[in-house]
Design goal:
It contains 10 helices and 10 strands. The chain has 2 domains: 2-153, Alpha/beta knot (3-Layer(aba) Sandwich); 171-247, tRNA(m1g37)methyltransferase, domain 2 (Trp Operon Repressor, Chain A), CATH 1.10.1270. Helix content is 37%, strand content 16%. The chain is α/β, with parallel strands linked by helices and 251 residues long.
Length: 251
C-alpha cells in the first residue's frame, strides 16, 4: 500500500519511519510512505503557501492552488485514483474499524493542514474524507497522520513479532471491542505489590477467565459505551452479563 503525505514539515516524519518495530513496515515498503511538500508547488521567490483570510480574523489560511498542484502531481505519479484524506477537527474520530479498513486498503493521499486551516474550496473540490483524532486541536495534521500510519503499520503481517500482539489490543474484535486487561512481568513483587496469584497458577482456563473479567470490569468502569456496543453485537455471554450485574451493584 502507498500513502503520500502532503506536509509542510516532512522532517517531522523521520523518527516515525526509522524507529521502533513498525519501521519494518516502512523499510520493506509494506507501507510505502512518500512525503511531498506543497511549498515545492508554490509560485514566487518565497514559495508562499498561505495568505490572510477573507473577512478578516486571526491566523493565516493555506491556499488552494499549491495544494491542488501538489495533489495533481501525486495523482499523476500514482497512475490511479486514490482517496484524499484531510486531518481536521470536523472529521470523523478515528477508531479501530477505520484503522483496519485502511490497513487492508491500497493506501491514500494524506493532507496535513497548518495555520488556521485550508481554503474550503480545496476541501470541497479535492478531499474525499476527513479524519479527527478527537475533540481537541493540534498545530497541524502531521501528528494525526503519524498516528494513522503507525496504527496501520502494526497491523501488517510480519511487522509485530506475533500476530496475537495486535489481536489482544484494546478495541480489537478478538476482544469483542473491550479494553485490554492489566499486564504484569518480573519481579513477582515490586514496591510491596504482588502479581495476582491466578497469573502464577499455570491454570490456563482460570487465567483466561480472570483476563476476561478484568477486561469487562475495566471497560464497564471507563468506557461503558463499549459494553453497550458489545451487547448490541451479541458478544457478551451469560457469564459476562452476570459479572456486569455484580459490577453495577446488583445481586
Amino acid at each position: 500500500m502507498r500513502f503520500d503525505v502532503v506536509t509542510l514539515f516532512p522532517e517531522l516524519f523521520a523518527p516515525l519511519l526509522t524507529s521502533g518495530i513498525t519501521r519494518r513496515a516502512y523499510e520493506s515498503a509494506q507501507v510505502d510512505v512518500r512525503l511531498v511538500n506543497p511549498r515545492d508547488f508554490a509560485d514566487g521567490n518565497y514559495r508562499r503557501v498561505d495568505d490572510r483570510p477573507f473577512g478578516g480574523g486571526p491566523g493565516m489560511v493555506m491556499m488552494a492552488e499549491p495544494l491542488a498542484q501538489c495533489l495533481g502531481s501525486i495523482q499523476l505519479q500514482r497512475g490511479e485514483a486514490a482517496p484524499v484524506v484531510l486531518f481536521s477537527p470536523v472529521g470523523k474520530p478515528l477508531d479501530h474499524a477505520d484503522v483496519t479498513r485502511w490497513a487492508n486498503s491500497s493506501g491514500a493521499i494524506l493532507v496535513c493542514g497548518r495555520y488556521e486551516g485550508i481554503d474550503q474550496r480545496f476541501i470541497d473540490t479535492c478531499v474525499t474524507e476527513q479524519i479527527s483524532l478527537g475533540d481537541f486541536v493540534l498545530s497541524g495534521g502531521e501528528i494525526a497522520a503519524m498516528a494513522l500510519l503507525d496504527a496501520v503499520a502494526r497491523l501488517q503481517p510480519g511487522v509485530l513479532n506475533a500476530i496475537e500482539s495486535h489481536q489482544q489490543d484494546s478495541f480489537n474484535p478478538e476482544l469483542d471491542g473491550l479494553l485490554d486487561c492489566p499486564h504484569y512481568t518480573r519481579p513477582e513483587a515490586w514496591s510491596g505489590i504482588t502479581v495476582p496469584d491466578v497469573l502464577l497458577s499455570g491454570h490456563h482456563a482460570q487465567i483466561a477467565r480472570w483476563r476476561r473479567e478484568q477486561r469487562l470490569a475495566i471497560t464497564f468502569r471507563l468506557r461503558p459505551d463499549l459494553i453497550t456496543a458489545a451487547r448490541q453485537r451479541g458478544r457478551l455471554s451469560p457469564a459476562d452479563e452476570e459479572l456486569l450485574i455484580k459490577l453495577a451493584g446488583g445481586v
